[in-house]
Amino acid sequence: MSNTLLNTRDIQFQLYEVLDSAALTQRARFAEHSQETFNAAIDTAAQIATDLFAPHNAKLDSQEPEFDGKKVSIIPEVKIAFDALAQAGFIAGRQDYELDGMQLPEVIMAVCMGYFTSANPSTSGYSFLTSAAANLINIFASETLKAQFLAPMLQGRFSGTMALTEPHAGSSLADIRTSAKRTEQGHYLIKGDKIFISGGDHEMTENIVHLVLAKIEGAPPGVKGISLFLVPKFTLDDAGKPPQRNDIALTGLIHKLGYRGTTSTALSFGENGACEGYLIGEEHQGLRYMFQMMNEARVGVAMGAMVIGYRGYLYSLEYARDRVQGRHATDSPTSPPIPIVQHADVRRMLLAQKSYVEGGFSLCLLGASLLDDINTLDDAGQVEKTQILLDLLTPVIKSWCSEFGPKANDLAIQILGGSGYTREYPVEQFWRDNRLNPIHEGTNGIQALDLLGRKVWQHKSLGLQLLGQRINLDIQRAQALDDSRCSEWAKDLGKALLSVQKITLQLGGDLAQSGVDKTLANAACYMNIVGKVVVAWLWLQQALAAEAGLAKLGTSATKNNDDSHFYQGKLQATQYFFKWELSSIHQNLTLLTERDDTCFAMQNEWF
Ligand SMILES: Cc1cc2nc3c(=O)[nH]c(=O)nc-3n(C[C@H](O)[C@H](O)[C@H](O)COP(=O)(O)OP(=O)(O)OC[C@H]3O[C@@H](n4cnc5c(N)ncnc54)[C@H](O)[C@@H]3O)c2cc1C
Hints:
binds flavin-adenine dinucleotide
C-alpha cells in the first residue's frame, strides 16, 4: 500500500501497539471481527482512496461545481468515487449487520474515513454527511421515517446534509428564525433561509435528506425552542420512490477558499409555503439530537484536519529528501549540495509537522476509542464515566487538531519554498482545504468557551479528574522505566498536569467571583494549555510503546532496521513535543495566572 496518504506503519503502531484495538474483538459487538478483518477494511478504504479519490483531488479543486440556475453539475469522478465508497459498505460501516452494516469499531472507521479525506476532502464530504445524518435518523427518528429514509441513505442512494446555519445565526443557533408550522396531515411546513449547507444540492443521488433546525410556532425562546426536522429534496410516495420536488430552492452556490468540490449552498425552504418537513423525536429537543451528531462530527472534523496535515507532512518529507540545496556551514563551497532534509531548520519543520499530525492522529483515535467504550462496555458506571470524559475532551479534540492541522500544512508549504506557493504542487491546496476546520462545526473560539465555560465544571469536574487519573497512570508507567527519556518526560508532564489543575481551580473561583465574561475572555489560553497537555500525554504513550518495541528488537543485528528507525523517530518526536511545544504553555499560564485583561479591556473605539 502506498504511503503517500497516511503512513501504514504508524497506523498499525497506533492501533495495535499503543491502543490495543485488537482487544475490541473480545467484545460481543465485534466478536465476528479479528485484527485481520480490521486491517482488511482499512486496506480496502486505502485502495479506493488511492484509486478513485486521490486522482481527481486537484481537478475538482480547479473545476468546482457549477449552478446554471436549474441544476448543479459536478465532474463525474465525484459520483464514481462516492458510489464506490458506498458499495464497499463504508457509509454503513459502523452500523449493525441487520442494517447491512459492517459493525466496525469507531477507531477502525476513523482510520478508513481518514484515508478518504486525506485523498480528497471534498469528495469525502458527501459520504461523511450522509453517514452522520443516517446515524442520527437511526437513533432518534420514528420507525416510519427510518423505514423510508435509512436504508437508501446507508446504501448511498440518498445523501444527507445538516442544515443549521442561517445568514444571521452561525455560532449563535439560539437566534435561528426558520419556522415550522404543524399541519392537520401530521407533517410540518418549514419556512426559512439556510446558508453554507454542505452537499445541499447536486444530482449525484436520487434524493437529498436535509436535517433542518427550526422553531415550531409558539416554541420557547432560545435553544430550548429548537426542533429537528427531516426535510427531503423529494417527498416520497408509499412505494418509497421520490416522486415530487419539495419546496426547497437553491438560491446560490458559495465559492470558497478550499473544500471547493463539496457544494456549499444557500437554500430557501418554503418560498411557496409548501415545504414538507417531518419532526424527528420530540418537539423542542432538536439541538440535543443535533449535538449527538455534531459531537461525533467534531471528532470527524478533527480527524479530517489531521489527515490533511498528515498528507502534507509526508509530501514535504519526500520533497526534503529529494531537493538538494546548499551545504552545511562547515562544508567546502566546492562540495556537492546536500538534500535539504540535512539542514537542521528543515528538520525542525518536519519534526513540528510529525509531532502535530501523529500526536493529533492519536488524539482522534482516543476520541473514537472512547466512543467504542461508550457503545460496547457492559458496566454502566464505566460507560457513564467514559461519556463524561469524552464530553470534556470533544472540544479539545476538535480545536487542537483543527488548529495544528493547518499549521502543519503551513510548514509543508515552507519546506517546499517557492514551489510550495505554486499551484503546480499540492501543498497549497492542502492548506486551503484544511483552513476550514477551525471554522466549521463550532469555531475554535466557541470550543474554548465551551471547555472553560461549561465542560470543565460538569459533574463537579469529574471529567478533569478522570483525565488526570488516566494521565497519572502513564506517568507512573514511565517513571518505572530506568535509563529512559520517558521518565524525564513523565516528570515534565506531571508538573504540567498540576499546573492545569491549579489554574482550573483559580479560574473556577474567578467565574464565581469576578464575573463570567472577564474570566472567559482568555478561554483560548486555557484551551491551548489543556490541548498541549493532552497531546503530550499521548506522545508519552507513544514513546512508551516505542520503548517496548525497541526492547523487543533487542540488541541483535536487526537493530538498524526499519522498525528500529520507526521507534527512534517516535522517541525523537516525543522529545520535540515536550521541549518545543509543551514548554510553550508557560506563557499562557502566566497570562491566566496574572488574570491578564488586555483583550477584555480593549475598547472598540481604540482600534
Ligand atoms: C465551507 C463551510 C461549510 C459549512 N458547512 C455547514 C453545513 O453543512 N451546515 C451548517 O449548518 N453550517 C455549515 N457551515 C457554517 C459554519 O458552521 C459556520 O460558518 C460557523 O458555525 C460560524 O458561524 P458564522 O460563519 O456565522 O460566524 P460567526 O458566528 O459570525 O462568527 C464570527 C467570529 O466571531 C466569533 N464569535 C462568534 N460568537 C462569539 C462569542 N459568543 N464569543 C466569542 N467569539 C464569538 C467566532 O468564533 C468567529 O471567529 C459551513 C461553513 C463553511 C465555511
